[in-house]
Amino acid sequence: MEIPLKITFRNVTPSASVESYVREKADKLGAFCDRITNCRVIVEAPHRHHHKGKAFQVRIDLTVPGKEIVINHAATQLSVVKLAETTAYENDLVENHEASKHCAHADVYVAIRDAFNAAERKLQDYVRQRSGAVKVHESGTHAEY
């Protein structure tokens, strides 16, 4: 099954090789879950003023029945802002990843690879929950006085 895929480049010159790499990684997601209805990938270099190369950010939005899975793969400076903006409910659906201090995401291919690895893990968790292999506990009070 081919996954409907939309690739967007922001502050980055579109590249056929990067686009084909994203398509290759997105096709592999179909092996983990065959019910993906939509996949949006945003490859972004967040600002033009930088001291040590570009720190690429990759965002993957996957739509599956009953849930939207969002992967924000950003450099350290950006993820602090993103974490402050998310609410407690969004933390269940959004996974944020931080690059190391040495800017491991100066290479766009590394940023894409790491973001899709995180998406694979989230999809595997989703499939396990849907199949009933993992118990989902309700949060609530444990004791009443």
List keywords for this structure.
36% helix; globular; single chain; five-stranded mixed sheet; Double Stranded RNA Binding Domain; 23% strand; 4 helices; 145 residues; alpha/beta
Can you put this structure into words, describing what you see?
- The chain has helices spanning 16-29, 76-85, 90-93, 108-131; strands at 5-10, 38-44, 57-64, 67-74, 94-98.
- Strand 3 and strand 4 form a beta hairpin.
- It has one domain: Double Stranded RNA Binding Domain, CATH 3.30.160.100.
- It has 145 residues and is an alpha/beta fold.
Percent range of helical residues: 25-40%
Poorly predicted ranges: 76-84, 86-91, 99-104
Structure annotation, total helices: 4
CATH topology: Double Stranded RNA Binding Domain
Compute the number of structural domains: 1
Describe the protein's topology.
Elements: E1 5-10, H1 16-29, E2 38-44, E3 57-64, E4 67-74, H2 76-85, H3 90-93, E5 94-98, H4 108-131
Parallel strand pairs: 1-2, 4-5
Antiparallel strand pairs: 2-3, 3-4
Helix pairs in contact: 1-4
Short account of what is shown:
By secondary structure, the protein is α/β, with parallel strands linked by helices.
